[in-house]
Amino acid sequence: MGLKIQNVNDAAFREYGRVVKGFDFTEFLKVLTKTTEAPDHVIYVASDANLEALDVAKQLQDNCYGGLPIEIGYCNGTNTKLNCLEYHKDSEINIAADDAVLLVARLQDAADGPVDSSKVEAFMLPAGTAVELYATTMHYAPCSGKKGAPFRVAIVLPKGTNGEKPDIVCKNDEDRRLFALNKWLIAHPDTDEAKQGAVIGITGENVDIADLI
Q: Least buried of 13, 78, 149, 201, by fewest C-beta within 10 Å?
C-alpha cells in the first residue's frame, strides 16, 4: 500500500503528536503571512522578532513549554520531498498559515540504524491549525499542501535550537547524527545535507508527494 495523505485530526496522528487547541492565533498568522516570504524553495529562520513579540508567544512559552525559554521562527517555501529526518530532545510546535503536509516517522524505527522511507507517513496540516510534534517524532521541512503553492509554517522550539553544533567527542552512533544545537539528523543519500556530511540514515526512495497533492 502506497503513501497516502492523512490529516492531523485523524486518530493515526496521535502516535506522532497532537493538535494544539485553546490559543487564538488570528493575529499571529496575520503577522506570519504579511511579514515573511514564501519562495519557490525552502527557507528556515529560527527566531523572528515580530512573532516572538506577540502576546501568544508568551502563552506558548508558559503553557506548552512550562516556562522554558523558546524561539519562534518559520519554515516557508515550496517543497514536495522528504530529503531528511530530524529530531530534537523535546516537542516542536508547528503553526500553519497555509495548508501544508508533514512527513513524519517514528524515532523508534531508526533507533538502531537506518530507517526505510516506507516507514514515513504524511499528514495534512490545514491552514490555521497548530500541532505539537513529540520528541520521538522525526520530521523535516513541511511540504506544500497544494500543487505549486507555497506554505508558511511557524516553528516553536526551545531557545537556541538549530544554532551552532556543540563540539563533542562521539561516544556512540547517535552522536554522529548531531547536526546542530539540539538537532539530530539523518539524510537520504540524494540530498545536499548528505553531501555536507550528514549521516546517511534513510534507505529506499526519497519520498516525493508531488503526485498526491
A: 149
